[in-house]
Automatic annotation (TrEMBL):
InterPro entries: Aminotrans_3, Aminotrans_3_PPA_site, BioA, PyrdxlP-dep_Trfase, PyrdxlP-dep_Trfase_major, PyrdxlP-dep_Trfase_small
Protein name, per record: Adenosylmethionine-8-amino-7-oxononanoate aminotransferase
Binding site for substrate: W74, Y167, K297, G330, R414
Taxonomic placement: Bacteria, Bacillati, Actinomycetota, Actinomycetes, Kitasatosporales
Function as written in the Swiss-Prot or TrEMBL entry: Catalyzes the transfer of the alpha-amino group from S-adenosyl-L-methionine (SAM) to 7-keto-8-aminopelargonic acid (KAPA) to form 7,8-diaminopelargonic acid (DAPA). It is the only aminotransferase known to utilize SAM as an amino donor.
Residues annotated as binding pyridoxal 5'-phosphate: G134, S135, D268, P331, T332
Site residues, Participates in the substrate recognition with KAPA and in a stacking interaction with the adenine ring of SAM: Y35
EC primary class: transferase
Source domain of life: Bacteria
Principal location: cytoplasm
Its EC number(s): 2.6.1.62
Modified residues (N6-(pyridoxal phosphate)lysine): K297
Cofactor(s) demanded: pyridoxal 5'-phosphate
Reaction(s) this enzyme catalyzes, per UniProt: (8S)-8-amino-7-oxononanoate + S-adenosyl-L-methionine = S-adenosyl-4-methylsulfanyl-2-oxobutanoate + (7R,8S)-7,8-diammoniononanoate
Length: 447
């Protein structure tokens, strides 16, 4: 193509860089942060750049200019930052087009990614909706399930059933299935759709499923099956709702009950997907497949926001047989080519290496490095699964003190509620895993 900008490309002058203090003052005055007040009360650290597993700060904090990232930017940056392969995918796509609408048009990055997701997820999942965030992918999943039953002539099936302790995002439907108590959305419990809640699944990945719990769970589903469109859960690991692990056996119980009782099953794998728990998807621990599945977070290796909702042909065809035979959802930035190209590169990068070996290696490092935390006063539990390490306190963590303690050790952590936890990038070396463990212990001690 000829260069349409060739003759007189106007180039804005480079803006003058802000001094860190100036930047922090503007941030405080104008910019919301996650779950934050306005104006902000905490002083966020200013990140200048990031590379590998390290964040580089604009000015030292607690004597540190670089921090090892123990959070993978909330589960997403599994390959670390500034990765040459992902950068190349981004640059290549940027030079072709960064975005084009998806209504009436399609493009290779989206098609390639969708086909790849179908290939690597459980077999019955065949159709892909590319959404622009995890929360939106959950909204889409819920819409699919409700519409499936509406199309089947059973519009009364429009509630959701979940277990307590979950987290599914911050938009309206996802909020309604987040843990109703002690969670971030308690304020809204009166205005949200009223869903059906089972008790949280009993703790312990390795624990045998509790028959009494299993019976109650089945009974609850049976009692509400006439009005419930879908059961939605995070398989094996409940993330932001409390970092709890449960037996994969409960997922088999849900699958059987849903099949028997005409209820759809949704797995929210937004946090657990792409290897974090030791299986490529956490459903793999149970050997069961959901009717609808959400992925996000690590999908783009942490580069851009993108998520996907996958469903079976039964669900898609059910919707298409209805009076309104379309899925009425279509975000402006649906299937963004830049994000899709990076996502495909990230998936290829992951599957092209011994990711399971890396996750197991980090898990081993976390297990040995966090063992001493169990002896600390104020620590209630220490648990590790895949590349996730959790220290649970017997009290609400002093977030500022705990964060400071971690930063002093040269590590970025984001403790919340009664939890100090880490899910490092898969490329974290053994020395850095040990450093992260020292920081988690320090944060648990001082938080
Ligand atoms: C983070 C998360 C979401 C929400 O994703 P966003 O991209 O933040 O909207 C939903 N479900 C689970 C399990 C998550 O961990």
């Amino acid at each position: 193509m000829p260069d349409p900008y060739a003759p007189a490309l106007p180039r804005p002058t480079e803006p003058k860089p802000y001094a860190p203090a100036e930047l922090r003052a503007l941030d405080r005055a104008h910019v919301w942060h996650p779950y934050g007040p306005m104006p902000g009360r905490q002083e966020p650290l200013v990140v200048e750049s990031a590379s590998g597993v390290r964040l580089r700060l604009a000015e030292p904090a607690e004597g540190q200019r670089e921090l090892v990232d123990g959070m993978s930017s909330w589960w997403s940056a599994v390959h670390g930052y500034n990765h040459p392969v992902l950068n190349e995918a981004a640059r290549g796509q940027l030079d072709r087009m960064s975005h084009v609408m998806f209504g009436g048009l399609t493009h290779e990055p989206a098609v390639r990614l969708a086909a790849r997701l179908v290939e690597i997820t459980p077999e019955p999942l065949q159709h892909v909706f590319l959404a622009d965030s995890g929360s939106v992918s959950v909204e889409v999943a819920v819409k699919m399930c409700l519409q499936y039953w509406r199309s089947a002539g059973r519009p009364e099936k429009q509630r959701l059933l979940t277990w307590r302790g979950g987290y599914h995002g911050d938009t309206w439907q996802p909020m309604s299935v987040c843990d109703p108590e002690g969670g971030m959305h308690e304020l809204w419990s009166g205005s949200l759709p009223r869903q059906v809640f089972a008790d949280a699944p009993p703790d312990g990945f390795d624990a045998e499923p509790d028959p009494a719990y299993t019976t109650r769970l089945r009974e609850l589903i049976a009692r509400h099956a006439h009005e419930v469109a879908a059961v939605i859960v995070e398989p094996v690991v409940q993330g932001a709702g409390g970092m709890r692990f449960h037996s994969p056996g409960y997922l088999r119980v849900l699958r059987e009950a849903c099949d028997e009782l005409d209820v759809l099953l949704v797995f929210d794998e937004i946090a657990t997907g792409f290897g974090r728990t030791g299986q490529l998807f956490a459903a793999g621990h149970a050997g069961v497949s959901p009717d609808v599945m959400c992925v996000g977070k690590a999908l783009t290796g942490g580069y851009l926001t993108m998520a996907a909702t996958l469903c079976t042909s039964r669900v898609a065809e059910g919707i298409s047989r209805g009076e309104v035979p379309v899925l009425a959802h279509g975000p402006t930035f649906m299937a963004n080519p830049l994000a899709a190209a990076i996502a495909s590169a990230s998936v290829d990068l992951l599957l092209g290496q011994d990711w399971a070996g890396e996750v197991a290696r980090i898990g081993t490092g976390l297990r040995s490095g966090l063992a001493e935390a169990a002896e600390l006063p104020g620590v209630a539990d220490v648990r590790v699964l895949g590349a996730i390490g959790v220290v649970q306190l017997d009290h609400e963590v002093d977030m500022a003190a705990a964060t400071r303690a971690a930063v002093r050790e040269g590590v970025w952590l984001r403790p919340f509620r009664d939890l100090v936890y880490t899910m490092p990038p898969y490329v974290t070396g053994d020395d850095d895993v040990r450093r992260i463990c020292r920081a988690v212990c320090a944060a648990a001690r001082e938080g």
